[in-house]
Design a protein that fits this description.
globular
């Protein structure tokens, strides 16, 4: 079963006429946790109250759910709701949102595109995980239509984006907050789980506005996330990619936080790219360390994303701008159509797996 006992991602669902509540996906059904576990924290319309309980509660609850599903189906059977009977909602209340830029391959490609006559990587890139603060109010759940944004496209030029793009990313959801002025501490004490992210990008707006302060309107109009948050405990880990120069002390890895996740990007139902998360240069523990080292606090529901996942091969690039730059052919679809950037009506779906663990998908259609 692709959504079996080793997976069990959390989400928020509702049935017709009922309030949203927390559930766990098991196969093609959702386990109603408030009813099955007799715990009102799961009757909340978001994961935030449960996530704030902390790592031991996350571990104990996961073990309890696994035991009930494996050994006591009579108790839980009446609380397993078929997926076709539910509506899925944004799984957590988003606090702050930070987007990083952690793929060496993606950063090198974008540097060549935006600064063709300069060194692709800026001098700071190998010394710290570069990031920017995004707009949490425009984080939406998978399936929400994405309206084509408008903005300045150049000096004196305003109109709808002509170069609408996607970025296949992995998001990390904060469960336990930290005190203001106190660094976060151990990664696994604070990060509840992961969710798939599509950081929609208006490339022409971005190219005009991003100097000198970085992304703004080109990024803030929509960010889509999966309705499922996979617990960190479910993910197989591996050593991170070698780094040169050696990071400063606060960024030195304290464990294996590389993740072996295979990502798949589909455009109008056709797979156009398969980015490997294992190729990422900066690991999530380093992202969190840098995010908080200046004393910035964490809140339950904070989201930080990896930045575009791209590998060294063309078919491993996680954005359309990388797939089609430098005179390379546009993306070709089976029906004969081609794409350099997204057209109205296009649907992008990002899926991922970590071994036998399915991370689900995040999807959106351009309006």
């Amino acid at each position: 079963m692709s959504w079996g006992l080793d997976n069990l991602p959390y989400g928020v669902f509702s049935r017709s006429g009922e309030a949203p509540r927390v559930g766990v996906r098991y196969g093609d059904r959702v386990l109603d946790l408030a009813a099955a576990l007799h715990d009102e924290v799961f009757a909340a319309p978001s994961l935030n109250p449960f996530m704030a309980r902390g790592r031991q509660a996350w571990h104990d609850t996961r073990a309890l759910i696994q035991n009930k599903l494996a050994d006591d189906r009579a108790i839980t059977e009446s609380h397993l709701v078929p997926l076709e009977q539910v509506r899925l909602h944004l799984p957590f209340e988003v606090g702050d949102y930070v987007d990083f830029y952690c793929s060496l391959d993606h950063a090198s490609n974008i540097g060549r595109i935006f600064r063709p006559d300069a060194e692709p990587l800026l001098p700071n890139w190998r010394h710290l995980p570069v990031g920017y603060h995004g707009r949490s109010g425009t984080v939406v759940v998978s399936g929400t239509p994405v309206r084509r944004p408008s903005g300045q496209l150049g000096a004196g030029v305003f109109g709808p984006c002509r170069k609408l793009d996607i970025e296949a990313e992995l998001g990390f959801v904060i469960g336990v907050p930290s005190e203001l002025g106190s660094p976060a501490g151990p990664f696994e004490e604070h990060v509840f789980g992961v969710t798939l992210v599509n950081d929609w990008s208006a490339r022409d707006i971005q190219a005009w506005e991003y100097v000198p302060l970085g992304p703004f309107l080109g990024k803030s109009f929509a960010t889509s996330v999966s309705p499922w948050v996979t617990p960190l405990e479910a993910l197989p880990r591996l050593p991170g990619r070698a780094q040169d120069p050696e990071p400063l002390d606060y960024l030195r890895r304290q464990g294996d936080w590389g993740l072996d996740i295979a990502v798949e990007v589909a455009l109008n139902g056709e797979v156009v790219s398969r980015p490997p998360y294992s190729s990422m240069y900066w690991t999530p523990d380093q992202m969190l360390a840098h995010l908080t080292v200046n004393g910035a606090s964490l809140r339950t529901g904070d989201l930080f994303a990896s930045g575009t996942i791209s590998g060294p091969l063309r078919e491993e690039r996680g954005s359309l701008i990388e797939l089609t730059w430098n005179g390379e052919d546009p993306v070709k679809l089976a029906n004969g159509e081609t794409r350099t950037f997204l057209e109205d009506g296009d649907t992008v779906t990002i899926r991922a797996r970590a071994g036998e663990v399915t991370l689900g998908e995040v999807s959106g259609t351009i309006r």
